[in-house]
Amino acid sequence: MSEYALLATVQPERRSTLYWLISDSWIMTKRSVLHIIRSMDQVLSLIVFPIMFMLLNRYVLGGAIDTGDVSYANYLFAGILVQTLAFGANYTTINLAVDMKEGIVDRFRSLPMSGSALVIGHIIADLVRNILSGIVIILAGFAVGFRPNASLVDWVYVVALSLLFTLAISWLSAILGLVVKSLEAAQWVGFVLIMPLTFVSSAFVPTHTMPRLLRAFAENQPVTHTINAVRAWLIGTPLGDSAWLSVAWSLGLIVISVPITTWLFRRHTAE
Amino acid sequence: MDPTPQYAAQHAIEVRNLQKSFKDVDVLKGIDFNVKRGSIFALLGPNGAGKTTTIRILSTLLPPDGGAARINGYDVVDDPCGVRSSIGLTGQFAAVDQYLTGEENLLMLGRLYRLSNADARRRTQELLEQFDLVDAARRPVRTYSGGMKRRLDLAMSLIAAPPIIFLDEPTTGLDPRSRLSMWALIKDLAKSGATILLTTQYMEEADQLADWITVIDEGRIIAEGDANSLKARVGAEHVDLTIAPTSDFMRAQQAVDGHQLQAVVEQRVLTIAASNGATTLKHILQRLEDAQIEIESVNMRRPTLDDVFLFLTGNGSNGNAKGNHHE
After folding, report:
1. Is B84 on the interface with A (CB under 8 A)?
2. I want to staple A130 with a disulfide (CB 3.0 to 4.6 A). Which of A88, A117, B187, B272 is the partner?
3. Looking at the DSSP assignment, which residues form a beta bridge with residue B101?
4. How many CA within 13 A on the CB side of residue B137?
5. pLDDT per residue over B149-197, tens digit each?
6. Where are the alpha helices (DSSP H) in chain A?
7. Which residues of chain B neighbour A11 with C-beta distances below 8 Å?
8. What is the ipTM score, two decimals?
9. Left, alpha or beta for B15 (phi > 0: left; psi -120 to 50: alpha)?
10. If you count residue pairs, one on A and one on B, with CB atoms under 8 Å apart, how many are there?
11. What are the extents of the domains in chain A?
């Protein structure tokens, strides 16, 4: 240690604010993605949950649900896909809550780095997680009898809408991650948000079978719009306005959530 | 962007009338201090004294309610970015990423401190060697021991070689061996020219490390000085006399009347203030011999910082500042 040159001649690089925002977000994204790969429970949930939901719905409930001309495997696929995306995007809540709790946020905030990079990193990691989940679901879907008649362009629409939907739920989840006071709360608060949204939707059963109030909710919420759009592109059910409504909902959620998240992040970490 | 010269030349840290309240509780009631460049400055105080709040304000994590602070010439409110480029912060709990390896943690921090890739790599290698973490460099941090995590934590705050380092209770919760190695690292850091502000509730730690100690309690500074001058405030050297069981303790007490600071009857220990050092001691021993009182042992010692601390925080009453070492 005697020759330790603490005041070594390391000079910080000088670049634009935008460069650093991108660079810092990239660093934080790599970190969050490493978290997915290195944490066994995240890998398991990525693989096990979609397959489990697919099998349970397809074989336990599937026989009792009438989806008209469409086979239940074909009907179910879009529902399971969007449900899994919603739960995957909700990881931002837990991951942010963990960071807040472990004090590493203080470290990041004492650095000359961009303030939003941490949240952005978690949110992009959710995209990565959902792409992997999506692949698992597609494979599982084919295994249980899902037979889409989609063109390549349809698939591109599906992927694009899925990513936008993921982003929207992730930003919303970031708000929850910054608001919750404990890790336990982070676990259930997301569940309480996502579970009703995906169940009271067109994910597993046609909405016209629901009681009037539930049906009104189910037919006018973003998860249903997203599911209906994905389903229309994949198996040719009527598209209607669902694609536009889904895009509008997602963009709306993002436009509202980003400033709230930024504000909460500043406030929360300043306590 | 350049620091104002007079600060840069003299003080690495300047704190003026710093105030902070949380809800109705005044955590900092106006504290002032300066930290000389290249020195180790200890903020000593019990839990809840306001140490961590001070560090959080100085490292821009928390806005002050009143007063001002400059770090390396940058104002913590007006120029947080300047402050953040000048400091390394090691908090009370190791702020390391559990899932990344030690090496990845360091590289990540280097890049976030705006070092070039090459510099970040070079500094990472240097620090892994200096902090004895080479063997563990490629293991996830969650497999590290507490001491290793703390070392990595400190290494991370040094990656960009900041001129000023904040250490919030750097050895709290460490075993004695890890504590010693942390102390050695901190001393080396200071030798290499860094300015260090550390908080501690261990008097021994402040005594060992600090050039200047500021004692805070309930959000106010109650004393400051180097370790010696603080000890001098409690007064003279202390002598602990253990009276042999064969002699009467009460009579011994009468014999040293006027010099006695404290008597612990159960342990038959009399503590006296030897205001004139050995001369007083000789005088006392003479009196006891005249009274035919046998003494088992004599122990002369300088007051410890514990004595000072208890004396200053009023937890030991005046003239009885010895504190309770017989736990």
Report:
1. yes
2. A88
3. B140
4. 17
5. 988 999 999 998 899 999 999 888 888 888 898 899 899 888 888 999 9
6. 17-38, 40-55, 72-89, 91-102, 104-109, 117-143, 152-179, 183-199, 212-218, 222-235, 242-269
7. 119
8. 0.85
9. beta
10. 106
11. 19-269
Mark out the alpha helices in B65-116 (DSSP H runs).
80-86, 102-112
- Please give the residue of chain A at the shortest CA–CA distance from B131: A1
Angle at B194 between CA B82 and CA B171, to 5 degrees: 105
Q: Which residues of B touch A35 (CB under 8 A)?
A: 99
Q: Residue A194: which residues within 8 A CB-CB, separation 6 or more? A: A83, A86, A87, A90, A169
Alpha-carbon distance of B199 to B44, in angstroms, equals 6
Residue of A173, A190, A186, A189 whose CA lies nearest to A257? A173
Return the DSSP state at A62.
Answer: G
Contact in structure between B168 and B52 (CB atoms under 8 Å): yes
**Domains of chain B from N-terminus onward:** 5-225 (3.40.50.300), 235-313 (3.30.70.100)
Identity of the residue in B60, B123, B156 whose CB atom sits nearest the CB atom of A10: B123
Task: Determine the residue among A111, A265, A266, A267 to mutate to test chain B binding: the one whose Cβ has the most chain B Cβ atoms within 10 Å.
Answer: A111
Cα distance between residue B86 and residue B83, in whole Å: 5
Contact B291, B251 (CB under 8 A): yes
- Cβ atoms of A140 and A54 within 8 Å: the answer is yes
Mean pLDDT, rounded, for B294-303: 82
Look up residue B140 and give its DSSP letter.
Answer: B
Q: Check A104 against B97: CB less than 8 A apart.
A: yes
Beta-carbon separation of A270 and B123 below 8 A: no
Residues of B in contact with A7 (CB under 8 A): 161, 163, 192-194
Largest pairwise CA distance in chain B: 79
- Flag if B109 and A5 touch (Cβ within 8 Å): no
B1-41 tens-digit pLDDT = 444 444 445 789 999 999 999 888 898 999 999 999 989 99
- Tell me which of B2 and A47 has the higher pLDDT: A47
- Whether A107 and B89 lie within 8 Å, measured CB to CB: yes
Pairing of strands B66-71, B195-200: unpaired
Nearest to A87 by CA among A38, A45, A44, A137: A45
Contact A110 B119 (CB under 8 A): no
Can you point out the beta strands (E) in B130-252? Answer: 164-168, 195-200, 212-217, 220-225, 237-243
Per CB-CB distance under 8 Å, the chain A contacts of B101 are none
Question: What tokens were used for B74?
Answer: 């940058």
> How far from chain centre, in Å, is Cα A39?
18
Whether B219 and B26 have beta carbons less than 8 Å apart is answered as: yes
Residue B41 gets which letter from DSSP?
E
How confident is the prediction for chain A on average, in pLDDT? 88
